[in-house]
Amino acid sequence: MSDAVLDKQVKKQKTRRSKVDPEIGVSLSWKTLKIQKQLIFMSVPIAIYLIIFNYVPVWGWIMAFQNYRPALSFGQQEWVGFQQFKFLFSDETFMLVLRNTVAMSFINLVLGTVTAIGLALLLNEIRAKFFKRIVQSISYLPHFLSWVIAAGIVATSLSIDDGIVNVILMKLHLIKEPIMWLSEGKYFWGIVGASNVWKEVGWGTIIYLAAITSIDPSLYEAASIDGATRLQKMRFVTLPGIKATFVILLIMNIGHILDAGFELQYLLGNGLTIDYSQTIDIFVIKYGISMGNYSLATAAGIFKTIVSVVLVFMANYTAKRLGEERLI
Amino acid sequence: MKAVAKGSSRLEPVVFHTLNSLFMLFVVAVTLYPFLHTMAVSFNDGSDTLAGGIYLWPRSWTLENYKAVFVSGTIYHAAFISVSRTVISTLLGVFLTTMLAYALAQPQYIFRKKIGLLFILTMYFNAGLIPNYFLIKNMGLLHSFMVYILPSLVSAFNLIIMRTYIRGLPFSLTESAKIDGAGDFRIFWKIIFPLCTPVLATVALFIAVGSWNAWFDTFLYASSDIKLSTLQYEMMKLLGSTMSTNNDPSMLAGGQNNQVQALVTPASIRSAITIVTAVPILFVYPFLQKYFVVGLNLGSVKE
Questions:
Q1: Which backbone phi and psi does B117 adopt, to 5 degrees?
Q2: What pLDDT, on the 0 to 100 scale, is given for residue B242?
Q3: Average pLDDT per consecutive 10 residues, chain B (303 residues; last block may be shorter)
Q4: For position A304, what pLDDT does the model report?
Q5: B51-73 as b/e, with b when 16 or more CB fall inside 10 Å?
Q6: Which of A152, B84, B115, B116 is the most exposed place for a label (fewest CB within 10 A)?
Q7: SS3 label, residue A26
Q8: Do A135 and B214 make contact, defined as CB atoms within 8 angstroms?
Q9: Do B38 and A249 touch (CB under 8 A)?
Q10: At what angle are helices A185-213 and A92-125 packed, to 10 degrees?
């Protein structure tokens, strides 16, 4: 995935001479700069653009250590040290928000991965090419729709008057009267998890299906000769075959554990379910943009970023120790 | 005993394949039903829809909902903004991503690793909403069209897909062009760019979908400016107004009273806009399918 992964070969051959890259034999000098001026012209402006839009805002982090008031100039701001962070971690709302974020993220991660692998395994068993293609194309259709449309669809499907979910459950006599799904906090996480599966499962299978198709067919033949059943083939050939993909995707996703997504939660959440629906991102919007408490919202944002970066490095390190594929 | 085992082993694949096919049909049904339902509601008379019982087919055909959508100039303008931002972002984004990917794919390029790392880090490292908001504000981009284009021009994910693809192209192409005296920019534009068609399609689709589907930037940076509203943002506002009717029985009654005067209801308007918003993508994606499957794999599975 990363530069370093792709450049592993290069890295291995690196020697102690730091000035000159031994692989390519180029050192940083006026001469090289001159030779590579076109490449520099093609990339450095974009890099500067990136720095402006992604790294310069880090300057704003100082707001988290102030009691920021927009009306005052920089010199006049009141410095408060870690007070915003202290407040954040003693604040009940934030703890609730953190719980919701991690819970929904975890549900999405586990449910998303399991369903994607499951669907990929089952799709792989479909012999009719045409049918397989149709199912696949349709299953990743929702991925291309915005969460606004998806949220509308979820709300319609769950509505008490004529929502399809209630209609079906009533017809099956599983419930006596329509459930107001979106008005009760206890259903919220499940709804978010299910909606995510509906929207992303087909998309998620693309990679796993590709990984399955690239498994050496002779392994299956050998397993058949040894008398393996379908389940045993899955267990001993397919699953080990997609392990590398799984690990890479897991590392990538672990860094996003505090990104439970906020669009669906923001669009579907309401006053009745707020204890279950509010995520860190919504917290930041609410405190920062709506209430103007920029310092607290920035502190929450910093917390999120630091946790993400630390988690990615930890996951990567663990994968390395276990001898698995890794990202960085 | 033996015969039984043999029989079951012959039966087992049949049972499995039947069940599996049925399950696939179930997946298809669950995925498609909401669209067909939305389509049916969008073509059904608004007040009739309130009576319930619309599933896959409109009961009382009408184009009123669509007329109501297009009667308001807001939607036309929102559609115009949505299309403009999508087209501009895609053209600029694809060009810049490919150009950068070309430079970073050159093994001898001195800043290759530094710039690469700078991009990869952005996948996990983000200054956060508030600092970003202040940046946009300080740059004077609030309530300006450029706020839709500038902040998300080149993404790390698309860059990786692109670079992996360019690295896979035969190295001798660039080499021989260089011997012939072509500069990097010429090689990129005349040789590499045309060769990248499949992956260009992938990246273009990713950028276009992202831009078309975005509503949060409007919400955050331009919500007070109706001239900058997008289709998705209009949908989002409608969603807010219909969500409450859907879920609060007391408001449902009030909602129905309103419907007596108006033929179209918020729900039917929303269905119509949903269809209008979704249709462009539904038309494009089947054609690009074979490309993005390749693209996604390039991006996620290492060589």
A1: -65, -40
A2: 62
A3: 51 87 95 92 84 83 84 84 95 96 91 90 88 92 93 91 89 85 89 90 92 92 88 86 49 40 72 89 84 75 45
A4: 92
A5: eeebeeebeeebebbbebbeeee
A6: B84
A7: strand
A8: no
A9: no
A10: 40
Q: How far is B17 from chain A (nearest CA, A)?
A: 7
Could you read off the pLDDT of A273-302 as tens digits, one per residue? Answer: 999 999 999 999 988 888 889 999 999 999
A240-260 tens-digit pLDDT: 999 888 988 888 888 888 888
Mean confidence (pLDDT) of chain A: 86
Per-residue model confidence (pLDDT) at position A193: 95
Higher pLDDT, A325 or B207: B207
* Closest chain B C-alpha to A153 CA, distance in angstroms: 6
Please state, in angstroms and rounded to a whole number, the distance separating the CA atoms of residues B279 and B266: 20
Is there a contact between A36 and B53 if contact means CB atoms under 8 Å apart?
Answer: no
- Judged by DSSP in three states, A123 sits in helix
Q: Which of B38, B103, B289 sits opposite A42 (nearest CB)?
A: B103
Rounded Cα distance between A157 and B141, Å, is 38
pLDDT at A328 over 80: no
Contact assessment for residue B122 and residue A292, using Cβ atoms and an 8 Å cutoff: no
CA distance B268 to B266: 6
Widest Cα–Cα separation across chain B:
82
Pinpoint the alpha helices (H) of chain B: 2-42, 46-50, 64-71, 73-105, 112-121, 129-138, 156-168, 171-179, 184-187, 193-195, 197-213, 216-221, 231-247, 249-261, 266-300
Interface residue B224 vs chain A (CB under 8 A)? no
Strands A26-27 and A20-21: antiparallel
Q: CB of B225 within 8 Å of any CB in chain A?
A: no
Q: Do B124 and A54 touch (CB under 8 A)?
A: no
State CA A264 to chain mean position distance. Answer: 14
- Listed residue (A180, A183, A185) closest to A96, CA to CA: A185
How many CB atoms lie under 10 A from the CB of residue A135?
23
Q: What is the crossing angle of helices B231-247 and B73-105, to 10°?
A: 120
Q: Of A175, A301, A230, A320, give the one whose Cα is nearest residue B128.
A: A301
CA of residue A240 relative to chain centroid, distance: 23
Higher pLDDT pick, B214 / A78: B214
Residues 238-257 of B with CB under 8 A from A: 239, 242-244, 246-249, 252
Tell if the CB–CB gap between B215 and A54 is shorter than 8 Å.
no
- CB pair distance less than 8 Å for B293 and A288: no
Which amino acid, one-letter code, is at B28? V
Strand partners, A27: A20
- H-only helix segments in A214-326: 217-225, 230-233, 239-241, 243-254, 263-268, 274-277, 280-284, 294-321
Distance CA A314, CA B23 (A): 38
Q: Which tokens hold the place of A24?
A: 């390519």
Distance CA B120, CA B219 (A): 27
**Three-state DSSP class for B219?**
helix
Retrieve residue B89's tokens: 């972002």
Contact A126, A135 (CB under 8 A): yes
